[in-house]
Design goal:
It comes from Candidatus Clostridium helianthi. This is DUF3794 domain-containing protein. Strands 4, 5, 6, 9, 10, 12, 13, 14, 15, 17 and 18 form an 11-stranded antiparallel sheet that branches. The N and C termini lie far apart (70 Å). The protein has 314 residues and is mostly beta strands. The chain is extended. The protein contains no helices and 20 strands. The protein has one domain. Strand 19 and strand 20 form a beta hairpin.
Length: 314
């Protein structure tokens, strides 16, 4: 049997009997999909500052924020890949050479049904926030099972009475978020290259990794651990009720796919398979904001014009 390997060379060779047959890689007729078109934000054309008037509005006043970032790596061995289409030129036992890899998914978030995912510890006190930015991962119509990547809530917190006399407008408190177990929805891992001398594209079989009744896979399946986020926020001494916004920006990438088998003949109605080990990287940017809704005064010009793509829209 030929050696199993991962290759990126321009020529692929394999032994046939006592001879060595080589072939060059096929030329690709692929082209870029829809061209990318640049754009810019909405613009505002203001009149003279002399025309500005002062108006009262109700707005969220940002008092403090805390940022943190966590990362981890994951892997899975002997994951089955199924070829996207049947090719009669493929022969069982041929080398699988992977040249390009890719990953896509619809959403990464935390399970709404797990209470600890909504809890936050501030100065030793536990508060429960409300999940928002929900994404339904249920495979049963009419029975939602949600992931989320943002929490919101208004909490009341009294500064500790043992603090020294206040010399600053606020007191800094420690914030802890424990056991954040992320899941990925509709994960698709793709590999392309050549089998023997024939180009292929294959997709990993991941449906069996999902939670029952969902299309969401816990990242713990890949050995990615639950995450703990910590930081410190400044809480105002003259207010005990503030609003928290806790958001996560996760990203999952595939680093490497290494074949662990040669091409396996297709079953009836199939296109053939092979197995491979995969390596993944996971990173989460977490941002916590503390704010309060306050009446404020702003200057505005009544004759301002809002412009988008050169057209007046307001």
């Amino acid at each position: 049997m030929s050696e199993i390997r991962n290759c990126v060379s321009t020529a692929q060779c394999q032994s046939v009997g006592s001879t060595m047959e080589c072939c060059t890689s096929c030329q690709s007729n692929m082209q870029d999909n829809c061209s990318c078109e640049g754009c810019g934000p909405i613009g505002v054309s203001c009149g003279s500052i002399e025309d500005a008037v002062c108006l009262p509005i109700l707005a969220d006043e940002l008092y403090d924020s805390a940022f943190s970032e966590k990362e981890d790596i994951g892997s899975l061995t002997n994951l089955t890949f199924t070829l996207d289409s049947l090719n009669p030129n493929l022969v069982p036992g041929q080398l699988v050479c992977i040249q390009q890899i890719g990953i896509s998914y619809d959403f990464i978030g935390l399970a709404q049904t797990v209470p600890v995912n909504s809890q936050i510890l501030i100065n030793g006190q536990t508060f429960t926030l409300t999940p928002s930015s929900l994404f339904n991962v249920s495979t049963t119509p009419g029975t939602p099972i949600n992931l989320f990547d943002e929490l919101n809530g208004t909490i009341t917190l009294q500064p500790p009475c043992c603090c020294n006399p206040q010399t600053q407008p606020g007191t800094r408190f420690r914030v802890i978020e424990r056991n954040r177990a992320f899941q990925v929805a509709n994960l698709r891992i793709v590999a392309s290259g050549v089998i023997g001398c024939t180009r292929f594209t294959a997709t990993a079989v991941t449906a069996n990794l999902a939670q029952p009744g969902t299309n969401a896979i816990p990242l713990s399946v890949f050995g990615i651990t639950n995450m703990v986020f910590t930081g410190r926020i400044c809480w105002p001494n003259n207010r005990n009720r503030m609003t928290l916004t806790d958001s996560y920006t996760p990203n999952l990438s595939v680093d490497c796919i290494v074949p662990t088998s040669n091409f396996i003949a297709p079953a009836a109605g199939g296109a053939g398979t092979f197995t491979a080990n995969i390596d993944l990287s996971f990173i989460v940017d977490r941002r916590l904001y503390i704010s309060s809704r306050e009446p404020v005064a702003v200057f505005t010009t009544p004759n301002a014009v809002i412009i988008k793509n050169g057209d007046i829209i307001g």
